[in-house]
């Protein structure tokens, strides 16, 4: 995806690792989140009362798998529900259209807040807890894979390194801590 590649290179040049943008096709609008924190990922979340969530792994060379597993039929259903004719629908064309609108230049004002990330990433644990509270040290065991993923996506790579080095989980709160 050449659009993601341009955005990714701009992000790297500015030392940014996550960007949000919107994509509209027919009557459906998506909030898009491109993350280079850990594995590269592109998420699409439909806007509206009943959002649908799609997550696509992106390679380090900014390619996306052409086989979408079960996402293709779900995507078709979402687009059909939102009034887009499915006659001649092509997932390849859908992603070409998406790639055309990807911003080619990253901006700091397109770096989402932790609350925005949780709103857009339906695969995250404890989405109702957007506020970092504290670190919980472990004497045995350690942070769960889900906690590590949330730490990486919301706080960034240095926080994940800290978590692993100190064998500590990030604890999250539904209310902003009074510090």
UniProtKB/TrEMBL annotation:
InterPro entries linked: DUF6037
Pfam families: DUF6037
Protein name: Uncharacterized protein
Species for this entry: Pseudomonas grimontii
